[in-house]
What we know:
Blueprint: H1 15-28, H2 32-74, H3 79-90
Amino acid sequence: MRQNQVAKINISIPQEILDEIDRVSREEKKTRSELLRMAFNIYLDVLKEDRREKEKQKSIEKAMQTQDKIRDEIGNIDLIQELRKWRDERK
């Protein structure tokens, strides 16, 4: 289906939600269809953001695991002291 074509559908929705949609549509001067399209687009944006956050969290967890692995391999060292030592050796 092309983007500019509009399909009509039938949906089942609880009456109290429909009443709320009708109330908002009157207040906002929008049709039910406009409101439902807007709500769905917002929902898609929320889903995308949620997926991005989950991927970000996975990356953070992976970085933390890598950091822990490095610390286990080299032991506890004072990195500031090591940097100072390296800098002093270069003078």
